[in-house]
## 1
Amino acid sequence: MGTLEQARLWVRQARRIAVLTGAGVSAESGVPTFRDAQTGIWANLRPEDLATEEAFRRNPRRVWDWYAQRRENLRDAQPNAGHAALAEFQQRHPGRMTIITQNVDRLHQKAGSTGVLALHGDLFENRWLHPCLKSDLYGGAGGGCDPAAAEPGRPPYCAECRNLVRPAVVWFGEALPEDALSAAEHAAGTCNLMLVVGTSGVVYPAAGLAHLARDSGAHVVVLNPEPTDLDQAAHLRIAGPSAQWLPLLLAEP
Ligand code: BV8
């Protein structure tokens, strides 16, 4: 039996499917992957040196501008056939497929996927660098000042307390959102099949979900044109682009 046939059989047999996606699933929507060579003024910087609170504190404007550039690049990005294949499968088989993404580009949601577990936050949301002094955390009434009402700037800031606005993504060294991570761990630990799509498998704890699925007895299929750090956790590898192979993998028999 060929690799695709075997993977399709596992899809048909699986009562519960967990899908772990990374930047590669958005590559065919024209979104540069996370570790592609950076273009422009960040050519000599690694993403890991920009996506940290320390980098933001050291040079708020440069980090803010990097995110503004990424938001701009995403403005016209549309979900591709891979995102669509996942969303259509969910619609045909309600409750059978959980999508866990490391991506912050909202393209799974834009494609119509539901219940997406966004482990690393959302590029289009902002929050304060520090909890607002007027928030209920400090005994204030309500949620404190609204970052959307901050003074315009690169980054925007609070005129009263100089708090800075930052992107509501999970930076390196920051904890993942508890509810999303525990739901993802539950999905990975109880699925019969995990599809690992478009991720280098470098970033933890997200990448650990593939090992959890394998250790919990699920079949693991990696879909990626290149070798990944999760290949050793896979029972099968499909070497190719996700926009081409996800529709083939998930098409009804
Ligand atoms: C944390 C948001 C602790 C920001 C991102 C072990 C356990 C726990 C932590 C660690 C650990 N070991 C190391 C760590 C620390 C660190 C980490 O993993 N570092 C790495 C670099 C070694 N992890 C953390 O810091 C995490 N936090 O653990 O906190 C803690 C606990 C309690 C209290 C306090 C602290 C936080 C990690 C989240 C970081 N934020 N993103 C932003 O976007 O700016 S991660 C970032 O990398 C993106 O989200 C991205 O999605 C993610 C993973 O990258 P990939 O998606 O895989 O993308 P990449 O470019 O690498 O690969 C693309 C792939 O696509 C390639 O394989 C390519 O071949 C493939 N591809 C290309 N074209 C296609 C394709 N595939 C299919 N089709 C195609 N057409």
Note: The chain is about 30% helix and 15% strand.
## 2
Amino acid sequence: MCGIVGIVGKREVAPLLVDALKRLEYRGYDSAGVATIHNGKLERRRAEGKLINLDTRLGEHPLAGHIGIGHTRWATHGAPTEANAHPHFSQGVAVVHNGIIENFTPLRAELIANGAVFHSQTDTEVVAQLLTAYRSQGLSPREAMQKTLGRLEGAYALAILFEDQPDMIMGARSGPPLAIGHGDGEMFLGSDAIALAPFTDEITYLDDGDWAVITRDSAEIYDHDGALVERSSQISQGGVYVVDKGNHRHFMEKEIYEQPEVVSHTLSHYIDFAEGRVKLDSSQIDFANLDRLAMSACGTAYYAGLIGKYWFERFARLPVEIDVASEFRYREIPLSGKMAALFISQSGETADTLASLRYCRDNGLTIGAVVNVRESTIARESNAVFPTLAGPEIGVASTKAFTCQLSVLAALAMIAGRARGTLSSEDEAAMVQALVELPRLSNEVFHAVQPQIEMLSRELSRFKDVLYLGRGTSFPLALEGALKLKEISYIHAEGYAAGELKHGPIALIDENMPVIVIAPHDRHFEKTVSNMQEVAARGGQIILITDEKGAAATTLETMATIVLPVVDEIVAPILYALPVQLIAYHTAVFMGTDVDQPRNLAKSVTVE
Ligand code: F6R
């Protein structure tokens, strides 16, 4: 999603703005722009496509000034052209925006009727035009800002420059996050702490409905009603992480290979390995007295939640109600006092997940959140935060956040099982023992399967469609595998519960449809083998991901059999995620796609 940055400082800001935008690239974007005020005049440079294009433009036509705003745009209203790129100008006002102004059509019509001339197809331009309209009625920038915000419906993070105020940037937040960075004689605005990390680690997050006026040495924050409010600053973790690719070709590759380390880090946060038990404080969610758990998330985080459902139901006998957040929020699910809700999000900012959280909170449920960004809105609005310690995930396709989410959900399911008396301490100790082995086994898997998967991916890159099958927790992993492949290689892929095959998708099977079967030798294995027989009988090409026992137990001819170590069922989805991610990654590399920023996708989805 769009990224925002603003600097009011004591040095040339254009290169700093571009540098900050580079740190926001991971969010996904299709055009970019910056504006500064220099000698009392607003000027901007914008470019379609990647930041390199903006950099080139700035090289040809430099932009001077010690105050400025910048933006990476992920198109919602209007094509990703230069004319639609931000900042948008309207007579001495410049605006950058993340979100969607839902009532932009009537606002635009009203402004046009009053003589405004629009230069883009964006919803954002109405904000600039409204500010201009109010300023031309004689209102001060603060008054115009408050009036304008009162007219906007929808979601926004905004940064605004006024040509006649060369020492001041205004920001506003309703939905998508916006942070103020405190420097020494310089102040900053940014979509997140990572963008501001090279400048400062002292960050104040605006609350929903807040707007702010920042100058070189001050930040005033007003709430929705225009009352001056105090919001405390905090020292952010954003700067401690090195956001570079190291020796890897892509962030995604780096993040895949980081998993043994970050999963181990995450598990150590929740598990006392010496004692053989989960050390989480069970009082945060009263699992013992729940009769249902509601869960919701989007995309990959949702698939992590689906796997979590299997664990909560099996190990804690706790029924789980789970849905993608874009449905959950509107489903009007009846909620009772004996329920709690758990939301899963890497960014902690996903609009649909946040709306689902608020629905549950408004219905009086205790809210738990599994999040990777601890300062995020979802974390701040939850009663209990269960962090994933994955570090910043830059590749748009989620990898290490997924396995860290699974690690946290495994620990939560175990604590719930203990609290509800359904998991014996012996079983808990056995599961902990299995999890201890996970980082080492993950490294072994990388070494063992990497060359084979590279070769296989070259083959796969020739196909147009791929089917993924699995049973039990391997079913959500099949869905995740299909999502990963389609989002970065653009090959059409579907995930199915293996048992569903004969209810429809079997019609697709022929020699042009490789079928990736995820099947550890668990209690579902024999049934999955029967489904593989059905595929083989119809000329389908099978890629089997199994363990040593599974490989020994089947004589079926496969296009490839990827063999992993035999592991406990709580560990299997985490370990099996690795070859699934590598298949998508290498296939995309062979296809030559933009692996880290696949087309049309955004990292932090702050609009519906
Ligand atoms: C897929 C992917 C997305 C996200 C989804 C939720 O690889 O990354 O499907 O999982 O947009 O995002 P978060 O976890 O930030 O709420």
Note: DSSP finds 18 helices and 27 strands in the chain.
## 3
Amino acid sequence: MKNFTSVDDIQDLAGLVALAKAVKAAPFANQELGKNKTLGLLFFNPSLRTRLSTQKAALNLGMHPIVMNLNTEGWTLEFEDGVVMDGTASEHIKEAAQVVSQYCDIIAIRSFPTLTDKEKDEEEYVISAFKKYASVPVISLEGSTEHPLQAVADALTIEEFKAKPRPKVVLTWAPHPKALPHAVPNSFVKIMKKADVDFIITHPEGYELNPEFTEGVTITHNQDEAFKDADFIYAKNWSSYIDYGKITSKDSSWTITPEKMALTDNGKFMHCLPVRRNMIVNDAVLDSDSSIVIQQANNRTWAAQAIITKILEDDGK
Ligand code: AN0
Ligand code: CP
């Protein structure tokens, strides 16, 4: 594996999930692999899970992680080519990416979308620029259109908790007060398409995701119908894609309640976290045994460790 910036970079999902299970069972078995190597984590946005679990994964592999909050502590970067830099940006990504490549063996980046400039977001202009100018492998810690490390943790969690060979998995929209990105649902859709599951998406009208991601997936606007006999409920808010970055509904009838969970087949509740209680999901669900969000967050370490292992083993090939 050269870079990991999309679920599309996964050649063999079953093999990757098996590797994640193996590193979970023996976290320190491969400490020579990362010896004397450095993982650089660059954050343009906040994080709890991604920041800590990816560092932990690196440490488990004997690697040294170094972390920087680029948006608050670094120079403002310019991403356009050929511009006169007479504005706020002090440094061009061309130099920045080459310089960081000399300090790090892998560069990992978190960069959320603008949610105002669809074209720029879809180009993944930050992560793409790092890929273009860096001389080492690049990992996405959530870009503007995908969150692939989250998706690997999600696939591992479903694999661990499934009670039947082909479980029914539902991705449901839920309300939120702020406009959120599409990266988590997009990557979840992509990985569920590769997994051995019955997959269905439910959301209010107007919340269609980019059809390039959802092509071939059953979509319904009837949440209750979708929940029937489900084994996993994966809740997530996202802003409108059609009315790009806008909140067109905060309909509280889409909040996940115990009554809705009762429609499922003893279904498990999943969310990538951070989650807003009693907006996305009621306390009674999140605090119940059906919630596996904490175990899901634990799997972020093993997903990251599996990906870093693949990159180091292939030496970025
Ligand atoms: C982000 C999002 O929805 O993409 C990060 C989730 C991992 N969530 C928030 O900003 C609340
Ligand atoms: N799920 C996730 O990526 O969480 P953080 O934003 O806290 O990293």
Note: The radius of gyration is 20 Å.
## 4
Amino acid sequence: MIGLRKIKPANRDNVRRQLYLAAGLLLCLFIFSILTSCERGHLLRKTTILMDTIVTITVVSDSRLAAEEAIEHVFKELKRLEDSFNFYSEESELSMINRNAGIRPVKVSEDMMDILKKAIYVSQLTGGAFDITTGPITRLWDFHKKDIPDERKIREALRLVGYKNIIINERNSTVFLKKKGMLIDLGGIAKGYGADRAIEILKAKGMKAALVAIAGDIRAYGFKNNGSPWIIGIRAPRGKGDDDLIATLPLKDSAISTSGDYERFFIKDGKRYHHILNPVTGYPADSTGGVSVIADAGYLTDSLATGVFVLGPEKGIDLLRKLNLKGLFITEDGKRFSTGDINGIRFK
Ligand code: ADP
Ligand code: MG
């Protein structure tokens, strides 16, 4: 029997060494299991097409089932918002407002009232550089056909642009566009607004952390299940595509939006025509590359990125500084204009 066998002194050292080794191994295993048990829950990611773009939602949750249900709930809600805010569908609530421009006030939903108030607020912040009444001009620009609209038509459409002609009556929940032919286009704010709603739902559903990306409008809360922050990439404005990044940064309980002249554009006679329009001229804002804005809400980063792009790097960064927000312009030749306080940003 092994237990009764006498161990020779030479062997005794060997056994002791083996015991130490086994104890060390056990200790390592113990530490490893503690470290891995620090992973807080499962990470689940789902992608779909909504709001005319790619929507990716990542959540951290203890229950995979609860995570799946929460994400499905968000997708449904985003579809509902999309149906209401759709500029191109005759059936949308927005089209109802637009059709009645210059005719009568229209009773609107709580969401519509909310997004319109937020859009007007950002118009005020940007001195009209962001203006949802650019609809008559956005309609003239077709970036597939690659045609520059008739100058006379742009001039006529410009007479209909002006956020001050949106009349809101909160008591009656109505919206009235003063001039016949006015058109509201929520394309510069709806995705960020959607990201806010998504985060609200995911929090209410008990998700421990989440990252919502609706194209370039991204909002995060909490930390990944391994305890590190969500990392966001900013693409190079003249790079090879979405994966060609110029910088990365951690995003903690806030939102980031990027607007650029590379999303929808055409080039004619060496000039770039893109989808961010200057509400004063009716033509695309100066082609400067891209701008990212960081703030606590997605509606704000989305609309400000669009507005700040119109203002251009100098005035745009000045405005962000005044508002105590963070932002970064990256020009087409790689120059940077920044509020200078983006923690953890890394350039490639
Ligand atoms: P993307 O839609 O590519 O994320 P933006 O958030 O910058 O880009 O929004 C651009 C969209 O906003 C345009 O397609 C148009 O519908 C609308 N838009 C364009 N110029 C303005 C502007 N100056 N103010 C408000 N909305 C605008
Ligand atoms: Mg925007």
Note: The longest helix spans residues 9-37.
